[in-house]
Write a structure and sequence with these properties.
seven-stranded mixed beta sheet; five-stranded antiparallel beta sheet; alpha/beta; Rossmann fold
């Protein structure tokens, strides 16, 4: 996930994009953006509407086969030979779920986006080892499992309220087998705080005739991203809010929920996103 557009790009942008600190009083989104930031903090959960066509367009440079291969290599190195049943939550278009299934994992993929799931299912034709895909909210997983591994990749954790985020971690714990592994790829709040210490970041890129502008602003521990897209009959504005944690907070939080062997590591494989800010949280049930 990219810091602007999708919270995961701190060290660079897409080809043809421009990233810079938003100047004081800039016309870029003006007071409208400010009002949406305030509104997003009052209702921190991110709507599914944020993950629309413009979301996917703005991430074409990251969601590549090459990056998926890097991600799978990273995951396998962290699991150190673990196998069995795996939950990819959320799974998006299945770029990791399909690869892990072909490597021998029995994979369930969960996502709330029907378009992403349609793409994921279409890519299974002719494959002997298929992923089981489910369209549902991550807060409704109780009848699934149990799993040897639960995976939450591409900074996909933290889009609910603080209370619901903790409940999701509890749900992950209940779905894991004894000694099962939890892997969460996310951004380090401490690094994001440093990057945004002088104010918001803005980015603008043009993809297939559409101009997609985003601004990222930190409110407490939540990264607020406001995206405005032009090129249609009218400008479209969407807002996301994701809760981030420091490494220390992750360790304390997961240990408090009964996990053991909690570790937080930096990225080892190449990343087209934000290798400086990316961390992977790993814990044992």
């Amino acid at each position: 996930m990219v810091l602007t557009g999708h919270p995961h790009r701190l060290s660079g942008g897409a080809v043809g994009s421009v990233m810079k600190a938003a100047p004081s009083g800039a016309a870029f989104f003006a007071q409208k953006v400010k009002s949406r930031i305030v509104a997003s903090m009052e209702s921190p959960s991110t709507s599914l509407e944020f993950f629309d066509d413009d979301y996917w367009l703005s991430h074409e440079d990251y969601l590549t086969s090459e990056q998926a291969d890097f991600d799978v290599a990273e995951i396998l190195s962290l699991l150190n030979g673990a196998s069995g049943r795996l939950l990819d939550a959320p799974c998006g278009s299945g770029r990791l779920a399909a690869r892990l299934s072909l490597l021998g994992f029995d994979v369930d993929g969960v996502d709330l986006d029907p378009r992403a799931l349609k793409l994921a299912r279409s890519q299974q034709r002719g494959l002997s080892q298929k992923v089981h895909y489910f369209e549902r909210d991550l807060r409704a997983l109780l009848e699934l499992g149990p799993y040897d591994v639960i995976l939450s990749w591409f900074n996909s954790f933290g889009y609910f309220s603080s209370e619901d985020n903790v409940e999701l971690l509890r749900s992950f714990s209940s779905l894991l087998k004894s000694n099962g592994q939890l892997l969460i790829n996310t951004l380090d709040l401490h690094v994001v705080q440093q990057v945004l210490s002088e104010g918001a970041l803005s980015e603008e890129l043009t993809v297939r005739g559409r101009t997609i502008g985003s601004t990222a602003h930190l409110e407490g521990s939540r990264l607020i991203t406001t995206r405005v897209s032009t090129g249609l009959s009218e400008a479209l504005e969407k807002v996301s809010s994701v809760e981030l944690f420091t490494a220390k907070h992750w360790i304390e939080l997961l240990q408090g929920l009964g996990f053991s062997d909690v570790s937080v590591t930096k990225r080892s494989q190449p990343s087209l996103g934000d290798p400086v800010a990316e961390i992977t949280v790993q814990a044992t049930r």
